[in-house]
């Protein structure tokens, strides 16, 4: 007997016209709903995210169908991905049936749903349905029974769970009731290819041939209406993420991570700097709110949120969405709160993990720009002092600018003003120049360079703060002032390469300064030292030590540099035990986003939390390669009571002790 | 050299600072008379002429009128030098007199050599010598720079009066905020300065004060930042202290602060900058990170 | 209402001071300059008064010195002054308070300013003379060291900071001059739109010599680092060593530790 089935069995071909009319109505309803959303997004400023369409489309297909970003977090992610694939398969199967019944057969007299293809088709769809139901059950248990901390359940969640469950279960009931009357009797071998349907058919067959067709017909219509209802509510519920989240993987930026829009300060027509109202954000910023699924992954990873500060990246996005939808005149700061904005360390953990490609950090920065540039506000007086110190002396400490190069006296380094014939320019930064602990690190870095025969120059008193912290605090004006001065100074010398020990300087000089027409190659000392070792210019005498390593946000997440520093430390004899959170998952030291200047007045201390994670590894040494991290960890070890158990050491210190004489 | 000293009187009391003017006069070796807007009931004890103005009639702060009266005394006395204290009264009145006489004024004098007066500048980080180029001069002396002198005696009182109209109306005094600490009588004062970095670190300094069994003081920036209340402020606008031991933690030593504590018996300063002006008055300056040094010292003491 | 605010640009006090060739004042190289702190309070208070009066008063900011003082002037304009007068005087360091006051008074004499604000002193010279001298030269009332200021119907109510935390309240009728002390207000941070607007505000340049040719009344010499007090000991080293040394000294030299 042939392996196929009669499509529209029991309901009859007469339903086709009605079915398609209803489908058109559902799709139109959905389209109309998205048009309403479009009006909301259009309140934002223009932004081109439709260039490089091929690349964008490719990225979108991989992200959506591969579920790559969803799958990164196993909790919830596995269920979602498998459910997605199951549901997608059912959708594809349903479409194929429609194509077969309403196009191929009537128009071309072609039947593809037969024989082995039909057998596998039946099996795959049955299993897909089973997977979808089981995964939906998993998601149900997680959301409604386990209730993970921070996951907010709204009315939509109940409705959507009920809707999806009913669609799936009615699907199997329809199949079962059809099979009970047909396949189970006529072609039992084929029935086994629909194992789930088979079980349902067995269970339903007791109802008898008299009742089953009637039940089947009712269920069929019910299922159809539910399916169409599903389509029509997509734009009006959380389900809209099916399109918006997918869309965001098309719209996500292609610029290097951490790119911030450079304000044209010469443009005197600008009256509003930063975002005060939703109309100051871009349409993409507003679209992001619709792409958010409230999965709270950003919140789980946020160092501010996890230390009880009033910031949740998710709630920032939601607040923007709510203002855009319900009260577009309302001030953003009022909706998001200044405390939340100032709490951000710009560590980028939220953005990195977001399955929806939402850009959290730049929104926060735009709102900070409004606070700083339009209102003259600061997170605290200490930040104002640091800012005005940078204005006057080019460093946040208020030390005399003329003493900036004093740390290098007697060390193997030349001041560029006196001798600029060097291999690299070491952009020391404020901490290495003035902070005692970090001066030691800078001195060690110079020793390493000397041992490798690298001639190093510094700018000394000609160097100024790179501007990173003030830029992240929203002070674009001061950032551009110091940046322009640094750029002019550096361009005055024939600099081949710049090396920094500070990841913040590194990011700023290598990326942010590009917008200001600066193109000297810039490198972090982690990769520079690694190359010296690989090229055998620097010879180390390894001495064994055990350590754990902290990925600084601006080296790891922002610049994808994870391997080189580990390689350097291993070639110095180190045995690494990773912390629970490392790599892309690393946890901020608390000092990013200009927070290095600010007192941590709200919640508990981020640095103490991070030091505790390091301590949990049982390693005696916490290795880092960022002056901010080093400073925060020295402090965290003291205030957290880890003295004697854990020491923080800079990569350069460890390497310098092992230079082969 | 003939000197006309300008004494101070406030809230119905002759101020002790007047004795420092006498000390200056003795140090420079001049024949001194005194101008005072005060009361005949409380005249300073010295042998010389006292030009007395009744404060009840002419007010305790009434610069235009006081200037006119002072000009009368100058006319009568014809001094070479008119000496004020560098105080809210002195720096307000001295330039008015100097302008009327069109003579040199030297502010906040801390010493002298011949015709030159030593003064601090650049927040007391530097000193310089200022020489009047006019035959007469007006100077203000820094509070605490010259030892007070109570020579005793009875002055010859000349009462001055004028009918010049006042251009300012004195409304009244606002008392200092209530103090819950008595720094003035403490044997040991441990003070926190801007160098502590943040409010939380007040506790580090408080622990040291406790370990010493002393009182907690603070410099003005710490009070202005709201890290501690005004009652703890040491300095010319806070309290003047004379403990046996004064410990200055992270205090660079602005002139206003030094004025309030430099008469302490022994001064221990902890600062990361060894050129900080506090080093000028400190018996021992420890150059260290105070957040490391202070807890270590506290631990040893307790 | 017309308001004049007089400001000075001074070195940042953290700067490394060195005497100039003749040791009359500091050598300007390696110094970072900023607006005199007390003058920032003066600018802020003037702008607050303007705001209180709905923007009616016109505020002129004045500064004497070489071209570098334009930076301080721009900041005052960004905070909210309306126009500026730069009195060009390359040799400002050798001009003493009487001369400076004479220049300002010569400029202000025929301008009918209702209120003049200055800092109570400069951070570098610290003479606390110029404000009062200007008022005396103009023949208007003045009062100093303000930590409180109010204006109503042509009368200024000023709160002066006296010694020991006591304050004195004074009233004077405009035209008048007041000098401002720390604690009067906390100056705002200029917003970017105001910084940009300030670029277009008028800055009139005048020559100091054309305003006044007064001779100096004082001379300056021997600008120097002060001598350390004789007994002062400077201790450096590791924390543990330092603690030991300090305890030994305290036991030896003071009666409070036994």
List keywords for this structure.
heterotrimer, A: 661 residues, mainly alpha, Fumarate Reductase Cytochrome B subunit, Fumarate Reductase Iron-sulfur Protein, Chain B, domain 2, Rossmann fold, four-stranded parallel β-sheet, 29 helices, 5% strand, elongated, B: 302 residues, alpha/beta, 2 domains, nine-stranded mixed β-sheet, 30% strand
Describe this protein's structure.
The complex is a heterotrimer of chains A (661), B (302) and C (258). Chain A has 661 residues and is mainly alpha-helical. Chain A has helices at residues 15-41, 53-66, 68-71, 74-108, 115-146, 155-181, 183-186, 188-191, 195-204, 208-233, 241-251, 283-291, 297-301, 313-326, 332-336, 338-343, 349-353, 360-375, 381-393, 429-434, 436-451, 468-472, 476-491, 503-510, 525-534, 563-571, 606-616, 627-639, 651-656; strands at 414-415, 424-427, 456-458, 498-500, 522-524, 545-549, 574-576, 621-624, 647-650. In chain A, 48% of the residues are buried. Chain B is of the alpha/beta class. Chain B has two domains: 2-159, 3-Layer(aba) Sandwich (Rossmann fold), CATH 3.40.50.620; 188-301, Rossmann fold. Chain B has nine helices and 17 strands. Chain B has helices spanning 18-28, 55-58, 63-77, 90-101, 202-212, 220-224, 255-261, 278-281, 290-301; strands spanning 2-6, 9-10, 13-14, 31-38, 49-54, 81-85, 104-113, 116-121, 126-132, 137-141, 156-159, 168-174, 188-192, 215-218, 245-249, 266-271, 284-287. Chain B has a nine-stranded mixed β-sheet, with helices on both faces. Chain B has a five-stranded parallel β-sheet with strand order 14-13-15-16-17. In chain B, strands 2-3 form a two-stranded antiparallel sheet. The radius of gyration of chain B is 21 Å and the shape is elongated. The mean pLDDT of chain B is 91. Chain C is α/β, with parallel strands linked by helices. Chain C has one domain (2-211): 3-Layer(aba) Sandwich (Rossmann fold), CATH 3.40.50.620. In chain C, β7 and β8 form a beta hairpin. The N and C termini of chain C lie far apart (66 Å). Chains B and C meet through α4, β7, β8, β9 and β12 of B and α3, α4, β7, β8 and β9 of C. β12 (168-174) of chain B pairs antiparallel with β9 (167-173) of chain C.
């Amino acid at each position: 007997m042939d392996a196929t089935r009669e499509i529209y069995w029991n309901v009859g071909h007469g339903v086709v016209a009605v079915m398609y009319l209803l489908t058109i109505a559902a799709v139109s309803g959905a389209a109309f709903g998205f048009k309403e959303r479009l009006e909301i997004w259009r309140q934002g400023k223009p932004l081109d995210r439709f260039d490089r369409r091929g690349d964008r489309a490719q990225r979108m297909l991989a992200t959506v169908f591969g579920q790559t970003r969803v799958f990164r977090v196993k909790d919830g992610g596995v269920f979602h991905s498998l459910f997605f694939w199951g549901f997608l398969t059912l959708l594809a199967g349903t479409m194929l049936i429609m194509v077969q019944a309403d196009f191929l057969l009537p128009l071309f007299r072609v039947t593809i749903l037969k024989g082995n293809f039909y057998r596998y088709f039946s099996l795959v769809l049955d299993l897909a349905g089973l997977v979808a139901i089981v995964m939906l059950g998993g998601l149900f248990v997680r959301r409604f029974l386990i209730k993970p901390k921070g996951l907010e359940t709204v009315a939509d969640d109940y409705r959507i769970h009920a809707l999806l469950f009913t669609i799936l279960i009615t699907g199997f009931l329809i199949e079962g009731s059809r099979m009970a009357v047909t396949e189970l009797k006529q072609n039992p071998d084929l029935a086994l290819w629909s194992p789930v349907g088979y079980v349902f058919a067995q269970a339903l067959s007791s109802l008898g041939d008299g009742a089953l067709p009637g039940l089947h017909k009712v269920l069929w219509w019910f299922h159809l209406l539910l399916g169409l209802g599903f389509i029509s509510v997509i734009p009006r519920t959380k389900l809209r993420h099916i399109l918006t989240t997918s869309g965001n993987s098309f719209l996500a930026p292609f610029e290097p991570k951490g790119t911030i829009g450079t304000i044209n300060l010469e443009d005197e027509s600008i009256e509003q700097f930063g975002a005060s109202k939703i109309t100051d954000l871009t349409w993409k910023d507003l679209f992001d709110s619709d792409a958010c699924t409230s999965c709270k992954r950003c919140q789980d990873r946020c160092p501010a949120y996890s230390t009880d500060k009033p910031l949740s990246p998710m709630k920032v996005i939601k607040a923007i969405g709510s203002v855009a939808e319900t009260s577009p005149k309302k001030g953003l700061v009022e909706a998001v709160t200044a405390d939340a904005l100032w709490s951000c360390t710009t560590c980028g953990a939220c953005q990195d993990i977001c399955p929806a490609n939402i850009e959290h950090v730049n929104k926060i920065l735009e709102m900070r720009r409004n606070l700083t540039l339009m209102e003259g506000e600061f997170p605290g007086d200490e930040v104002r002092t640091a800012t005005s110190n940078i204005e006057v002396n080019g460093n946040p400490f208020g030390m005399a600018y003329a003493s900036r190069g004093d740390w290098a006296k007697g060390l193997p380094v030349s001041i560029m003003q006196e001798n600029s014939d060097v291999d690299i320019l070491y952009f020391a930064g404020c901490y290495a120049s003035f902070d005692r602990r970090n001066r030691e690190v800078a001195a060690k870095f110079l020793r390493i360079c000397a041992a490798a025969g690298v001639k190093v120059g510094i700018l000394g008193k000609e160097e100024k703060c790179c501007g990173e912290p003030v830029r992240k605090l929203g002070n674009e004006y001061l950032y551009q002032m110091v940046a322009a001065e640094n750029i002019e100074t550096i361009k005055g010398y024939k600099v081949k390469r710049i090396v920094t020990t500070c990841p913040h300087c590194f990011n700023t000089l290598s990326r942010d300064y590009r917008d200001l027409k600066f193109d000297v190659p810039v490198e972090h000392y982690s990769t520079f030292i690694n190359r010296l070792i690989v090229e055998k210019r620097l010879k180390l005498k390894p001495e064994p030590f055990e350590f754990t390593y902290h990925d600084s946000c601006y080296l790891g997440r922002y610049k994808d540099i994870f391997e080189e520093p580990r390689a350097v430390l291993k070639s110095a004899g180190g045995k690494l035990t990773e912390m629970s959170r490392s790599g892309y998952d690393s946890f901020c030291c608390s000092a990013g986003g200009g927070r290095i200047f600010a007192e941590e007045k709200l919640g508990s201390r981020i640095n103490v939390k991070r030091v505790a994670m390091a301590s949990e590894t049982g390693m005696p040494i916490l290795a880092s390669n960022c002056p901010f991290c080093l400073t925060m960890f020295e402090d965290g070890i003291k205030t957290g009571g880890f003295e004697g158990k854990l020491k923080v050491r800079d990569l350069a210190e460890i390497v310098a002790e092992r230079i082969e004489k | 050299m003939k000197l006309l000293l300008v004494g101070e009187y406030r809230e119905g009391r002759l101020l002790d600072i007047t004795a420092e003017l006498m000390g200056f006069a003795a140090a420079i070796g001049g024949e001194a008379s005194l101008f005072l807007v005060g009361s005949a009931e409380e005249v300073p004890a010295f042998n010389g002429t006292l030009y007395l103005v009744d404060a009840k009639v002419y007010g305790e702060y009434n610069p235009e009128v006081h200037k006119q009266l002072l000009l009368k005394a100058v006319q009568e006395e014809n001094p070479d030098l008119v000496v004020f204290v560098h105080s809210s009264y002195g720096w307000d009145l001295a330039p008015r007199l100097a302008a009327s006489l069109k003579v040199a004024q030297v502010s906040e004098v801390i010493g002298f050599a011949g015709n030159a007066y030593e003064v601090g500048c650049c927040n007391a980080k530097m000193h310089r010598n200022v020489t009047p180029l006019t035959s007469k001069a007006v100077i203000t002396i820094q509070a605490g720079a010259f030892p007070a002198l109570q020579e005793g005696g009875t002055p010859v009182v000349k009462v001055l009066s004028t009918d010049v109209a006042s251009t300012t109306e004195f409304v009244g005094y606002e008392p200092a905020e209530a103090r819950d600490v008595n720094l003035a009588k403490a044997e040991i004062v441990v003070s926190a300065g801007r160098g502590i970095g943040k409010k939380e670190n007040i506790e580090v300094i408080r622990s040291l004060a406790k370990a010493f069994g002393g009182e907690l003081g603070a410099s003005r920036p710490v009070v202005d930042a709201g890290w501690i209340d005004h009652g703890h402020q040491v300095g010319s606008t806070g309290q003047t202290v004379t403990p046996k031991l004064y410990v200055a933690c992270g205090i660079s030593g602005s002139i206003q602060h030094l004025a309030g504590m430099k008469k302490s018996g022994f001064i221990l300063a902890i600062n990361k900058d060894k050129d900080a002006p506090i080093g000028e008055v400190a018996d021992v300056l420890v150059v260290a990170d105070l957040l490391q040094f202070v807890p270590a010292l506290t631990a040893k003491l307790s | 209402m017309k308001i004049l605010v007089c400001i000075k640009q001074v070195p940042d006090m953290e700067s490394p001071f060195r005497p100039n060739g003749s040791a009359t004042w500091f050598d300007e190289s390696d110094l970072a300059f900023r607006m005199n702190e007390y003058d920032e309070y003066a600018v802020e208070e003037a702008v607050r008064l303007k705001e209180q009066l709905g923007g009616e008063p016109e505020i002129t900011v004045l500064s004497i010195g070489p071209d570098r003082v334009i930076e301080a002037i721009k900041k005052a304009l960004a905070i909210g002054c309306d126009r500026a007068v730069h009195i060009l005087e390359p040799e400002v360091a050798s001009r003493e308070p009487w001369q400076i006051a004479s220049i300002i008074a010569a400029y202000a004499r025929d301008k009918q300013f209702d209120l003049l604000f200055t800092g109570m002193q400069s951070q570098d010279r610290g003479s606390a003379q110029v404000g009062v001298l200007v008022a005396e030269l103009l023949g208007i009332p003045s009062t100093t060291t303000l930590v409180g200021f109010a204006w109503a119907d042509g009368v200024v109510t000023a709160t002066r900071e006296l010694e020991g935390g006591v304050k004195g309240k004074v009233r004077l009728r405009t035209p008048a001059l007041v000098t401002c002390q720390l604690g009067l207000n906390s100056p705002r941070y200029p917003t970017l739109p105001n910084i940009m607007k300030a670029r277009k505000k008028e800055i009139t340049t005048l020559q100091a010599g054309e305003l006044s040719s007064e001779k100096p009344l004082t001379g300056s010499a021997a600008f120097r680092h002060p001598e350390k007090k004789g007994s002062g000991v400077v201790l450096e080293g590791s924390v543990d060593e330092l603690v030991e040394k300090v305890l030994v000294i305290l036991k030896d030299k003071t009666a409070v530790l036994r």
